# Entry
Amino acid sequence: MPGLLPLARFGARLATGLLDVTDDPAALDSRGFWAVCADFEGRLTCARFRDVSERPVPAPGGWWGPAVGDWTSSLDRAAYTAAVRRIRGHIAAGEVYQANLCRVLSAPVPDDADVDALTALLARGNPAPYAGTIRLPGCGVEVATASPELFLRRDGRIVESGPIKGTGRTESDLLEKDYAENVMIVDLVRNDIGRVCATGTVTVPDLCAVEKHPGLVHLVSTVRGELRAGAGWPELLAAAFPPGSVTGAPKSSALRIIDALETAPRGPYCGGIGWVDADRGTAELAVGIRTFWIDRGAAGGTVLRFGTGAGITWGSDPEGEWRETELKASRLLAVASGTYDVSEGTTR
# Structure
């Protein structure tokens, strides 16, 4: 969008003064502060910024979101529940144990829509530990995430992931299926990270911890390891991407099933969004869930998109999984559409 300057915002950290952009992950091992957006389909955008400062997220203003009734879904209720039944068929046939089934919601927004203005609303209506914004209009990357999930954190050679599996309104809503699914994905993430970590260093410090987030609770685990000698960002991303919690197990089978059943690309949703400080050897990438992005190349004008999904196992109830996607989306869509009252904590 002409007139919008490139920036990246992660919590109170603001990066400005764009220096260069690349799709080469090896650049993340070089120098400087990088904003990173990896689409689920594999497109990688790494943007290095000159200036990084501590700036609080500004007060809301300047965002005109879509009307509540303007949102459409890539899979409607009937199509989604039918796809859940298809996945259960694949599980019965022994092809997969779990697959994450997602849908993409879309609504028109004005051509001058600014994803950073949406960030200000999200910071108050749905605060999240891995909130982030990347605005690179010339590169087609305009993303705002309120992600609660850690994809990859690095501190020197130590790497950590925090997969989420299991969602309910309250802890009492969590089912045996949720705990089993979390353990399954932890094993997958252990395997992914283990491909690039020194033998014997991969551990699980936390398993199935209950975390409270706005409007819901999640089961969260922690997987940690030490990168082997010679392994850097290219090797780590190749081993861990796309995130295991939003694909399934085995990952290769789940990806094939996802490709057959989902009717829209996920884009930055379910990808990786975050920052890398190459000078300090630190980084934090979120799984791109609870994520909005602006698509200016859509037919009919500028479109705001948002993804939501659920992990499907043999124990899944199709209608229950549809309701889980609605639960994950409802508060955030209300924030983006201007119907969520931040002061009251209610939807108008």
Remarks:
- The chain is about 25% helix and 35% strand.
- The first strand starts at residue 7 and ends at 10.
